[in-house]
Model the fold of this input.
Amino acid sequence: MNISKKVCVLALLVAPFQAHAQQQTVEGAHLFLSKVVEQGATTFELDDGNGWGQVRASKSFCRYYSYDTASGFKAGEYGCGDYKTSTHDVGGYRLTSIMKLTRCASQISTPEVQAKDIEVDSGQKNYWKVSLPYRKPSYGIDWDKVAEVKQDGTSVAVSGIKPAIRFKLASEPLAARVAYAMEFLRLECDATSGTGF
Done:
């Protein structure tokens, strides 16, 4: 058998396998991200200008009516004043779903968290009363506004949107695949791509 016949036979053998290769599409990227989240091990943090996982809260400085140093008993508020704001680490949130809204927009969902007051000790006779804000149950990602998708270990940060979102994945290889899919969406939806720059 001469070389040209061998090449033709090889091409015929390879052709069926090439037909089954998955083409990368925007639809496929959305579907991949939703399937990753369905596995249940993904969390995320937000940064709205205060740092990852930090929320700005109002707080007031309070004193107790009485304080027993022997028992540690604290009785009532003497009064609260000196109102300020502070940042508090609330950590990551469980990601329950990521769904396609339009070709270039996704929505991530998480359990809703109501506003709540917490107390932060500031010494034996006083404390800060902190009001943590309500956290809404969903956030949008406009892929045409995303400036950067960056992987760091098991984390993937999406910046250029408000708030910025950092996803935490179960493993580094999975994070690399998620970052690739998100970067694909960013590039496919880039509003400036037709400008030549």
User: Anything to note?
Assistant: Confidence is low (pLDDT under 50) at residues 6-20. The two ends are 52 Å apart (CA to CA). The longest strand covers residues 74-89.
